[in-house]
Design goal:
The two termini are 21 Å apart. The longest helix is centred in the C-terminal third of the chain and has 13 residues. It contains seven helices and 53 strands. By secondary structure, it is mainly beta.
Length: 894
């Protein structure tokens, strides 16, 4: 029955009350009639009762339903769950404890008459200065920084020094030398007095085992180094500044530089800093460091014969320039460059123009494991296995997955430029045959692709080598693109929107494809999908999943000084978490943890893999020091977070069963209690006692947004411009605030709520204040979650209308708020606006359903119909003329 036929019927308001019936909440309805025009549709909220609910507890909730707004009344017909003040009810005249912002302005942010910003201790709110004055330290690009100048203070006798001692004492050229006295001050600056050094033993315990406290170096006198300075700054993870080393550290007599900066925090190194004229060994000199680029162009080390592992396992190294570099053979020992760049997983560009390798004996594993390297120009490389006994190029081009013996996994290299003098025997060159057909030369691009074995046979240092320099490229196999639509178990794909879709591609030579898991859900069937390639390039595959219970992993925090009670952070992780490094919710939770290398005790910080029973037994490394050392992947800013991300990825296959309970995931131990975490709700005083000697990494940008504190979390701590706690000042739970600036300080994000006062982004959520109406599609329920993305036991019944006052994005998906802490997924509803014009058809007019699908119904020509709302479907405006019948606005006249 259409609206013009309903105009004799009054509107109905359905009043409902919940009462418990066994395990479900049941809604009882009464109907009243008022004047106006309406649709007679029922409104039901289904709420699943918990099994352990006390039978003596009564739970009621009034739900008002006006199925159509009376003309001119914009506040009626909300379908809103009436909750406590601060809900989404627009008729609620009581002062909202949430301070809901209207059009970006907080109505309850009061301005002091004096123009200053004050703190109202009675309700935990901030009186906002509307002018939002910029403090002097925030002008011109935010230049306020920490003073990191190093004053000598009391020198070596200063009681605040971290350590002191003597280095380099011994015999040099038959004469006794005293070496140099040194000390590390409280700012981590290593001061070294002038003097002559004997050769240092290969001992990583230099600097009294305090090498990890060193952040920079200052020579207080000129130092003449001995023949060996190996391991000098081994594992100096905080060292980023070499100070005046170039002018004050003489290495003209030094021959052994092995592992000098291995594991250091250096991000760059100028090779003119040290004199390498007599160097004979630079083994692993920068292995495991944080170098981002290397430039050896124009440098010459005439006596060095051992470059093995020089830049191996550098996680941030992306670019190398070695153009014109000459590897010299200065003695009868082998010239060794094996592993020089192995394990550099970020390396994607290396310039080797004019590199002379004619005297090199060992190139084994040279680029082994460089998983980002896709192109290599080896046109200047020469390698003759017949010249010297012991020559080796074993696995020079191997990809690290070959370590497992899986020949289908190989180097990522897609392009190789070769010359006839390069020997590829034993190089380990291979490619994934499921992805590529083989190699083709630019000299004959129309030729059939050849295998890696055939290419190696061409470059075996015989007369069969191709003439001249040729570039060989991999030819990819044809692929098919397909889309996987994920539906909840029991849903009908013909009438229901998928909860998620993924566009994937696969090789046409494959006949089966395994559907990937999605976080938070498990596949109903693990069977691979058989793809019918005759169906064409683009196919749609339906996969059915079921919601899995998320995991709560306890991170236990303890302290040596016992100044605070142990804390527990409950890390929420979805089942089948996949790659958690891109999961915003998990990363935000991990940002609660502080990493201060001077305070965290790494030997007492370890994972409890026993809690995971089967599936984690093969991992023997549990302490973060062991884990990071083994993996060679250290995040200089937060290795603790990096370790957790790695471990969650390692345990991902274990975290796939609903109801699998895990506790005591990680024990974190600090030496002293310092409330450095923005989300540390147990801290109530003090400020961060950071001993950082570097300027804070700060970025401030203008924004225009509103954020809200969580209704189910404690009050939220406020911070000053430098990230220090402001004693006694908080934001109350369930309140909303206008933000005009965003600050990223040392990797943590803050929003400004008033002049000089900031809130951690981890403690609030961002939303858009927008009053609108939504209707649940008739073929699905409206799944409800809280603001953290946790599924609730309640859901909205199909074909029901609801008022929403804000939209948010949770886990990357849009949601509408329909109650204080209840949000409905935008995929389950459509948005509309109440309007009641009369529309006129000029021609026979097509009828569409609520999803924009064409129906078999049509409206006759020259007919008038009363409408009650309009919405935008697939980008076009539609008027509703009946319960699930719409006409395009362009097809009618008003």
């Amino acid at each position: 029955m259409r609206f013009e036929q309903l105009k004799r019927k009054p509107n109905a308001i359905v009043k409902k009350k919940m009462y418990k019936a066994r395990k479900n909440w049941v809604v009882a309805s009464t109907i009243a009639f008022i004047g106006g025009v309406t649709l007679l549709s029922s409104q039901t909220l289904t709420a699943k009762a918990d099994d352990n609910t006390d039978s003596n507890i009564t739970q009621t909730e009034t739900v008002s339903q006006d199925t159509q707004a009376p003309q001119g009344d914009t506040t009626a017909n909300t379908g809103t769950i009436n909750v406590e003040p601060g809900s989404a009810d627009p008729n609620n005249k009581q002062q909202s404890s949430e301070n809901i912002v209207d059009n970006g302005q907080d109505n309850n942010l009061e301005k002091n008459d004096s123009g200053n910003v004050g703190y109202d201790g009675s309700n935990g709110s901030i009186q906002r200065d509307d002018n939002l004055r910029i403090d002097s330290n925030e002008q011109e690009g935010i230049t306020n920084t920490t003073d990191v100048s190093d004053s000598n203070a009391g020198g070596i006798y200063d009681t605040s020094n971290i350590a002191s001692g003597n280095i380099g004492a011994g015999y040099k050229g038959g004469s006794e030398v005293k070496g140099s006295s040194w000390y590390i001050n409280s700012k981590g600056v290593l001061h070294i007095d002038g003097g002559n050094w004997a050769g240092l033993p290969y001992d990583p315990s230099n600097w009294g085992n305090h090498v990890q406290d060193i952040t920079s170096i200052q020579f207080d006198g000129k130092v003449k180094a001995g023949d060996s300075i190996g391991y000098l700054f081994y594992n100096s993870s905080a060292l980023t500044d070499l100070g005046n080393m170039k002018d004050m550290f003489d290495t003209s007599d030094t021959t052994f530089f092995s592992e000098m900066f291995s594991g250091s925090g250096l991000t760059n190194f100028d090779f003119s800093t040290l004199d390498f004229s007599k160097a004979v060994a630079m083994t692993k000199m920068f292995s495991g460091s944080h170098l981002k680029s290397v430039n050896l162009s124009g440098f010459d080390f005439p006596n060095n014969s051992n470059y093995s592992g020089l830049f191996s396992n550098c996680p941030e190294l992306t670019e190398v320039n070695m153009s014109g570099f000459h590897f010299h053979k200065s003695s009868n020992v082998n010239l060794d460059i094996r592993d020089m760049f192995s394990g550099d997983e970020s390396l994607n560009k290396i310039i080797l123009d004019g590199v002379d390798t004619s005297e090199v004996n060992n190139m084994g594993q040279l680029f082994d494991g460089d998983t980002s390297l896709e192109s290599l120009d080896l046109s200047s490389f020469e390698y003759n296995v017949d010249d010297v006994t012991g020559n080796d190029n074993t696995n020079m081009l191997r990809f690290k997955d070959n370590w497992s013996g899986d020949s289908s996994k190989s180097t990522k290299i897609k392009s190789l430029t070769l010359n006839p003098n390069l020997n590829l025997l034993e190089s380990g060159l291979n490619f994934d045959e499921s992805e590529y057909l083989g190699w083709v030369s630019d000299a004959d691009p129309s030729a059939d692709p050849i295998s890696s074995a055939d290419l190696i046979a061409k470059y075996d240092h015989t007369d069969n080598a191709p003439d001249g320099i040729q570039t060989w490229s991999l030819v990819p196999r044809p692929t098919v693109t397909y889309t996987v639509n994920y539906f909840l178990k029991g849903q009908d794909p013909k009438t229901t929107n998928p909860i998620k879709s993924k566009t994937l591609s696969g090789n046409k030579d494959k006949t089966r494809m395994t559907i990937p898991q999605i976080p938070g859900y498990g596949l109903v069937s693990d069977n691979p999908i058989i793809v019918d390639y005759s169906a064409g390039e683009k196919q749609t595959i339906d996969a059915f999943v079921e919601t899995l219970k998320p995991y709560t992993l306890d991170i236990n925090i303890t302290y040596d000084d016992n100044s605070a009670k142990p804390q527990v952070i409950q890390l929420k992780v979805p089942a089948n978490p996949g790659d958690v490094s891109n999961n915003t919710d998990i990363i935000n939770q991990l940002n609660q943890l502080s990493y201060d290398e001077n305070n965290l005790d790494p030997d007492k910080t370890e994972f409890n893999l026993d809690a995971f029973a089967e599936g984690a037994g093969s991992m023997n490394l549990t302490k973060i020091t062991e884990l990071l050392s083994e993996k060679g992947s250290v995040d200089a800013k937060n290795p603790l977070k990096q370790s957790i991300i790695f471990m969650l990825g390692y345990l991902s296959p274990v975290l796939s069963k609903e109801g699998y309970e895990v506790t005591d995931f990680l024990d974190v131990h600090y030496k002293t209690y310092v409330p450095t975490t923005p989300s540390d709700n147990n801290s109530n005083s003090g400020s961060s006692a950071s001993s950082s000697t570097t300027k804070p990494d700060r970025e401030v940008d203008d924004i225009n947004q509103t954020s809200a504190t969580y209704s189910d979390q404690p009050k939220v701590q406020l911070y000053d411009y430098d990230g220090n706690l402001i004693d006694g000042e908080f934001l109350a739970p369930n309140t909303s605030w206008y933000n005009d600036k965003k600050m990223i300080l040392n990797g943590k994000m803050y929003y400004r709520v008033s002049t000089g006062k900031w809130v951690s982004a981890n403690d609030v959520y961002v939303y858009v204040a927008r009053n609108t109406y939504v209707r649940v599609y008739k073929d699905n329920y409206g799944s409800l979650t809280n603001v953290h993305g946790k599924a609730l036991s309640r859901e909205l019944k199909p074909a029901t209308d609801w008022f929403s006052d804000r939209t948010v994005y949770i886990n990357g998906e849009k949601y509408y708020r329909v109650a204080t802490n209840e949000f409905v997924n935008a995929n389950n509803v459509y948005e509309y606006t109440y309007d009641s014009p009369v529309i006129l058809t000029n021609n026979t007019t097509a009828i569409y359903d609520e999803k924009g699908n064409l129906t078999t119904i049509e409206l006759p020509t020259n007919s008038s119909y009363k409408t009650d709302r309009y919405g935008v479907i697939n980008g076009e405006k539609y008027y509703r003329v009946a319960t699930n019948e719409f006409v395009k606005a362009e097809d009618v006249n008003l």
